Structure formats: C-alpha cells, structure tokens
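Ticket reopened. Same input as before:
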Amino acid sequence: MGHHPPYLSILLLSAGSLAYEILLMRLFSIIQWHHFAYMIIGLALLGYGISGTLVSLFQKYLLSRYSQIYLVCLLLFSLFTVISFLVAQTIPFNAEEILWDWHQSIYLLLIFLLLAIPFFFAASAICLTLMQYSAQISRVYAVDLIGAGMGSIGVVYLLFMLFPQSALLAISLLGLITVVVAVWELRLDERLRVSLVLTIAILLFIASGQTIELHISPYKGLEQSLRVAGTRIIEQRSSPLGLLSVIESKRVPLRHAPGLSLNASQEPPEQLGVFTDADNLTAITRSSDKLERLSYLDQMSSALPYHLVKPERVLIVGAGGGSDILQARFHQAPRIDAIELNPQMVDLVSDRFRAFSSALYDHDNVNIHIGDARDYLRVSAQDHDLIQLALLDTFNASTSGLYALNENYLYTVEALQIYLDHLKTDGYLAITRWIKIPPRDTLKLFATAIDALKKSGVQAPEKRLVLIRSWQTSTLLVKNGEVSEQEIDSIKTFCRERSFDVAYVPGISEQQANQYNILQRPIFYRGATALLSAKRQQFMDQYKFNLEPATDDRPYYHHFFKWTTLVEVIQLRGKGGMPLIEWGYMILVATLIIALLVSVLLILLPMFYFQRHPIAPSGVLSRVHVVLYFFLIGLAFLFIEIAFMQKFILFLHHPIYAISVTLSAFLVFAGMGSYWSRHLGRKFSDRQTAVIAVVAISLLSLSYLLMLDHVFNHYATAAVNIRILLTILLIAPLAFFMGMPFPSALSSLQQYDRHFIPWAWGVNGCASVISAVLASLLAIHFGFTVVIVLAILLYIAILFLFPLQKIKQA
Amino acid sequence: MQIISRYNCSCLLLISLVLSQPAVAKDEYATARAAMLRSIEAHVKETSLYLDKEALNPSVMKALGSVPRHEFVPQSQRRVAYENRPLPIGHGQTISQPYIVAVMTDLLKVNSNSKVLEVGTGSAYQAAILSELVDRVYTIEIIEALSEQANERLHRLGYDNVQVKTGDGYYGWAEHAPFDVIIVTAASSHVPPSLIKQLKPGGRMVIPVGSRFMTQELLLINKQQDNKLITRQILPVMFVPLTGDH
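Engineering reply: fixed in the latest deploy. New output:
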C-alpha cells in the first residue's frame, strides 16, 4: 500500500460522483417530471449519510482491508452508476397516481434506494481514505472538493457533447479508469495483472458500443404523441438546457394552437412538434408568403395588443419554434426582435428545418438573439412598441434539468420594471399565461404588474392595466401610458368577436366581465379590482393561494401554496383535491421530512454503538458537540453556497454559465481552503483555525450582502467573460475560508480518536441533503438574504460547539 | 371414520365454492358497483355548490349502475375497478374517474333521441354509459389497438348501438353530423373548429381538462340557437369558496 493517499483516484471519484448527481437530474427530468427528479436525487444523496453510519459501525474490519475495500467501492460505484439507473427506470412509478395508489410510494422508495447505491460506494471510499490517511485529512478533503468542482463543470461540457444516456456510460467509464488509477496509486502487488484485466474490460466496454434506451413515462407529451400511428422523431438535440425532440406526423397532422378562440374557423397549417425533455411542446409551423394562412394566430388572446397599437418594433421573449414571431409577421410588424435561451432551438428552426419554416429566423425584419431576456435588455438601448412574453414555458423547461427548484427571474417585480423601462411611450407589455381555476398565476402576475408600476413611480396603475381571458389563456397588458376610451372599445370588440371575456379594463363593471366563459363567480374581475383597491392586503390574506408578487430575492413566481389551505386540501385527498396541491412545494416538504427522519436514524445508530462500545474515556469528548458541529457546518456551507449561487445567477443570467461557474468555483476554492487549513494549523490550533475561518466567512458574507447589488449594477453591461471572471474573484475568498472549518475539526478529531471521523462524515452528509431543501424552503418564504444571514449565525454557533473543547478542559 | 367424514365435508365445501364462484364474483362486483354509486352520490352532494344540483339525473346513475366497469379495465386493475378514481388502461391512456364520467354525462343532458359523438374512445366505458341513454353513439379513437379492443368489448357486451371508428377525431364524423352532443376526451391544444361546426344549434359539448390522473376541470360549451358560443368552466372539487365576501 502507498504511503500517500490515492489523491488522483479520489479526485476522479469525486468528479464522477458530482457529475453523476447532475446527470441523474437531467435523466430523471426527461423520463419523469423534474419535481420528482429533485426529490429522488436529493434523497439518493443520503447515500453519503448511510456510508458514514456503516463505516462507523464496521470501521475496524473495513480499515484492516482498506486497499481491497477501496478498490471494490470504486468498482461498484462505476458499475452501479449504470445498473441503478437501468433498474430504476424499469420501475413503473407514476407521480400523478401517488395519492390514489399506495404502490407508487413503494416504487418511489425503491428508486431512491437504488440510486443511493452509487453515492454510498463513492462516499464510503472517500470516508475510508479520510480515516486511513487521517494525518493528511485536510489534503484528502481538499482533493475531494476540487474533484467535485471539476465534475460539476465537466458534466456541463459532457452534456453539450453527448446525449444524457451516453454521458451516463462516460461517467461509468471514468469510474473504471479510476479503478485502474487506484490500483497503481496503492501499489498493489498484483497491480499489473489487475490493471490489465480492467483495461481489457474498459476496452470491451467501449468496443461493445452500448446504448441505453430511455424509458420515458407514457404520460409525458412526447410519448403520447408517438402513440399516434405515423408519428416519429425526426431529429433530436441535447444540451444541459434540455433534450429537444422534433416529431412529424404524416397521417394525423400536428395542430398546435393553444388558446385558439372557439369562433376560429381556420386550423393551423402543417407543423412539426418540438418537445423539450419529452414535454413542453412548441411548434415549428410551415410558413409561406400567404400570410392569410396564419390568420388562426389572430384568434388568440395574445393577439390583442396588435389591435391596439401598430407596433414598429416588437420584442418577443421566448421565441421557441417561432409561433409568436409568425403572429407578429401576420400583423405586419416591420421589425421583430426575438430572444431564445436555447441555441439548439434556434439552430433547428434556422438550419435543420430552414426550408420548412421558410427561413423564418432569417427574414429581413426578424432578429434572433440567443441568451437571457434580462441580459439582452440590460445592454439594449432600443425601446419597443410591444414586448411579448410568450406562453411557452420554454425558459422554465430549459432550466429544469440542472435547476429543478423553479426559480424564475422573468416574472419578478424587478423584471417587469425592466420590461417597462424598454417600452416606448404608449407601448405595451403583453404576458400570456394558462388559465387555472381557481385563478393563481394570472392574478399573481396582475399584482406583480401593479407593484412594478408603483415602483416605477406610476401614481394610478389601474389606468394602465388590461386583463382578458379565454377558457384556456389569459393575457395581461401593461401600457406605458393610460389606456384610452377608444382602446377600451377596441378591446371589447376584439373579445366579443372571439368569445373572450374582458376581466379588467379601467371602468369595467362586474356584469361585463363574465359574459362568454361564464365562471360561477367573476373571480378574475373581483381579484383584479381587489388587488387595485385599498383592501389589497386583506384580499391577499383571505385568498387561498399565495398571490404575493415574486421579487429577485424571492424569485418563486410559481409558488402559490399557503399552509392555511393545506388542511382543507388534505381532506380532499381521494376526492380529487389534487389539482389544488402545489406539487413542487409539497415535494420539497416531503423530501425534507423524509431526509430528517432518515438522518436521525443514521446519526443515532453509531451514537448508541459508541455508548455500548466506548472508544474514548467518558466525559472527554462530547458526542453531542460532534453531531451539532458537523451538522451545522453542513447546513451553513450549503446555505451560503445556494444563496450566493442565486445572487450570481442574476448577475450572469444564463443558468448554465451561472450554475457551472459558481458551483465549481465554490467547490474548488473551498478545496484550496481545506488544503491551506493545514498550513494555518502549524501556527494556530484547529479551533483557532476554525475561528479565523468563521470570522472571515461572516465578514465577507455581510459585506457581499451590502455591496453585491452595487457591484452587479456597475458591471451589469460588461461582457460575459468579465462577469464570469468577477464572479470567480468574488467567490474565491469566501469559498476559501468555507473550506476550513470541516477539515480543522476532523483533524482535531483525528488527533484524539479517528473512530469518530466516519460518523462526522455521515452527519455532514445528512446535513447537506437537509440543507439544500431547507435553503429552498426558507428562500421561498423569507428570501435569499435571510438564508445568508442564517448561515452566518450558524457559522458563529459552531464556534461554541467545536468538538474538542472538552479535551482541552480535560 | 371421523377423518373420512371430515374429508367428505371439505370436498363438499370445495365443490360448492367452485360451483358458486361465478355467482359470488358477480355479487362482489354488484356490491362494489353499488358502493361506487353511493360514493358518487356523496361526492355530488359535497360538490353541489359547483354543480348547481344536489343529485345527478337518475337515468345517468342507473346507467352507471348497470355498466360492468370491471370489463373495461385491464385484468390487473379489476380488483379496484369500482373505486372512485381514474385507472391506467395501457397505451398511456386512462379510464376516467366514475364521478367525472357521471358528472360529464349529466352535463350533456341527453335524451333517448340524442345523437352523440365521442372523440377519444379509450376503454369505451363512457360510450357504454351513453349507449344506455341514447339511440346512437359514434365514437372515434386514434390509437388503433385501443379502437379494436373497444369494438370487440362493446360487441361482446351487447352495446350494439355504438359505432367505433379508428382515426383522427379533429374533423369529427361528417357523415353522421350534426350531433346533439359531443364529448371530447382526446388531448388537443384547442377545440377543433370542425367539431364546433358539427354541433347542432342548442347542442352541448363537454371537454375534461387537466391531468388524466387527477379530478379534471370540465369545460361545457353551449351552442345557442343563434350559434353564439357560451362556455362554463366547472371544477367539481369540494373546495370552500376562495375568499369571504370578495
């Protein structure tokens, strides 16, 4: 066995493990829905906690065979990355049946246990190495973090190059290579023979050209479409932004026209369907010079602004397959700017299906911009007559894989202010949403628009707002000026001709608001007028769903859940109350509860074991301090990481850059901090090192809270590379100090008794799972600023819990 | 002797059980069906505020009480066929929740002379219910396997007034148009204009909206005598009104 820890294999293993975690999120977002993907993978990470507990209990046996066990763990990690996923996707889990059918809970449990297996082996290998080489603990931990940082950025590049199922094989292959590396690092007697066998295995693995077929839920849009005879996938593209599948249906034409008026007589022309992650359909429509063939686009609620203004310049946010561009062309807009986040979507329309779309994106009057809408508007000096926020939830869908918590910066008060700032006088902002009964997002958006107008200094927002609805969609208009009587007449005519209802225009009566699509109560009208009245807060308090506008600090536009409604909804379980449950939120809560229960069990098991088999003189080491210290730094580390990641997303805008840059920067610099903590340890005690780190983290976090907004504003228009560099420079010192408290305390434990190391490792693993969920829940209710403040308090608390205080007293 | 008599008794019991099994099974389903009807009745009462009625039309309930729902679900689902919930039937499709089937049928307000078009046959359970109430039911299913299965099933169970067609329901069924009522259970991004055209003035169209595994919102379209279209959206879920006096 080598005298040095197997650094390179630890580095590769950590990279593989983090890459696998992100990849699973991608894979499950495709085969299931991303809410459940988040839950399954969150819980699977409890494999880290399980490893800590089991290594604690069997540490003597495991350490006596360190090399063999280490290799076996690496090998099994590699194999189970594929096996676990293959078996998990054969389990017939159907998320939507979960409240009707108890079998679904068992299926869910099986899936997350299966996926916990590879994480368990990876974590066990690292934990055993920390124990085996306890004198170099801070270095091993540093390599672990740096590896994870490399994995987080590596997987993003991998996902740009390969389809997710191929990326899975690549990660498994990396696992096998890691075993070969470890065989040499550990200087095993038979290394040549073992390496040879493994190398042959790797070559066979590559030569066999394995392909993995994804078993997508039969209830997702893509699978539903493919059931129709003659429908087939003709093109697929994949990136971290999503898997795009283009379908054509020769026998039964696709006719995608959501929100079409019942009075429409014309159907859409030939279309190709584009699914993102097997759902979220957008259509590429066969274009021709005969614009009258597009008249169906005038039969949608989103066409309203074209009947109020002849826009010279239109901006479309979320171009997708191009329906909104066609709508603008149908209305003869002379200049159309359109923004699309996913370059592959643009490529499909402008290259692969260029002829089909009649080069729609390359028309003289169409300008396509790839990127984030807010980023584009920040640098654009142009004002528009009309800004359309498309109905496609493309932005949401695109980010679902890496970013499953549904933060959305397009519908916040600040975002609406930016859109309003880019409107010409008397220009319109138009936002179309799906109708939900009882109303949720339509009214929340209305409240958001009121706040945005007020914040922009508008005294009478009620004179600038218009809300219309069909049975399927609602369109909100915010005018940069007061809505005139003539415009109100045009709105009423537009709605009458299409059997749409005017839910709100200045001066409307209740009777006028419920004429065509008759609701039992005109709740959209009543909601809109209440939100504009002095009783706004009372209305919001009494309303059963959360209508508080989203802000950049609490960017949860899709969060409507209120705890006070929960009891009633639970009573409706089995009686069809499920559409009223906000799944994303409930899944967060369920994940937190399960993670807490499992963690308590995992943490207490070794505690009882240590009580029965004392390995330290009683009274010298406080087990409670060990648990609390490692639990709280697990919480605090991720609180800061997640909260600042959100802040930087707003600065970098593009979710892929933001996630990969900030996550890897945090991990790599924390790794460096861990490495450096050893040097500090020569001058100071471990506890003093922790104190220095905590003071630095607190000061840096506080100063960032105070100054980040100013820095971001100052550099808002800088090139993306400059902003990435600035992000890294800002994260570096904070992450550097965040990497210290964990290895300092471990090193302290090691000086006394290394038997506690796996336990501390497991406690920290459990805390990380809980922390990620808890940070999201706290952010939903209180905002990210509060999460950061809490993290600082937690860091300060750990100073009083440093695990070896009692030794020194003893 | 005692052993022999015991043995004989056991044999007799076994024989009687085997002989009576179809009757027992039939009774079991009848009991389950009756329980399903009670569950629907209770559910309707609870949601009366949204349905504007305390009870559904007795003829609708009678139809639900006579159609053997267990025949319309896969063998693996028969055990729970009469539970008041949607069930998977394969091909990514479902059989609707009995309560929703009942409410939709009631909303259609059919009489024995009504001509009905159904788009999206699925298991054919809804078609069978309608066939108990009207003269002719025309139903279109796009998935060939389901369509064939439905045809065979309806024929076997004696629902001879239902005509099943495999194909695209977007253009309705022109040969038999216009229809008094149309029910659309197939997924579509919008209500096809052809279907609106094939609806008689004074006719009614019902469309369930939302996830097929949850209680669905119902869209009711009334085509008035002057061809004006009025829609109503009904969420038949017991939910106390949203706010106090607002």
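Chain B has one domain: 30-234. The longest strand of chain B covers residues 199-209. Please confirm and we'll close it.
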